[in-house]
Amino acid sequence: MPEPAYLTANRANWDDRAVAHVASPDYRVADFDDPEFLSDVVRFDAQRLGDVRGLRTVHLQCHIGTDTISLARLGAKITGVDLSPVSIDHARELAARTSAQADFVVADVYSAPAALDAGSDLDQGGGFDLVYTSIGALCWLPDIDRWAQVVAELLRPGGGLFLRDGHPMLHATNESRPDGLLTLEYPYFETEPLIWDGDGTYVQTDHKITHTTSYQWNHGLGELITALLRHGLELTLFEEHDTAPHEAIPGRMTQLGNGEWRLTDHPERLPLTFTIAATKRPRSGDGFRLPAAR
pTM to 2 decimals? Predict the structure, then answer.
């Protein structure tokens, strides 16, 4: 069976982005030469994530590995997974240069359980203590229910998911209108993909993307939470934030000094990111179960 068009296009797009992002000052790759340095994303997450020392962890959609290596520095036994071979090459180079204890695997999210051989030595699903996903991940996936199924397959009973990502309200907002208004113009719920064509990316760089086509989807919070519940996870944290770790709406945000950005004008009107933590329940034949996704 041929590979879906979205996967081919997005892999090529992210191969290009990886080259730009490694060279960009925004990813601060050179700062990892300091063994105490952590990415701003992981530094923000750490206060909610708790102690990860010794946890067998998989980082889905790890990109060039800056957050993966940061979690390794906090003590996680971590494997990063990404669909982009170029991203993984750069992640491995960074890990080798900094002597980070992190492994990396090339695979798209839906293929991750097979690629990681999840569940080969366990009779109740995958053997990971923690599945971690950071900013800018879910919008590249067409099916949030299938993603939740992957998370459940990867986790051992009692294991946990930690996710911080862009808020679907932000993704539904058009911030580039000539009249300066912030308007809801794109889908909030999971629908057909939005297909974009552009040679730029979200960091400071002179590099131009040559594989310019990309496919993206939004996923409403209700769709996301219901998918997690359907696949046997219980929410332990849900929080919405008025900040993001990048200038999500260029020219209209203020940098706060901790790697986070907030709308300059009335930041209370738009959530920019959210955090969800959840725990996989032990298997049981008892109790109410949600129906399968339609």
Answer: 0.92
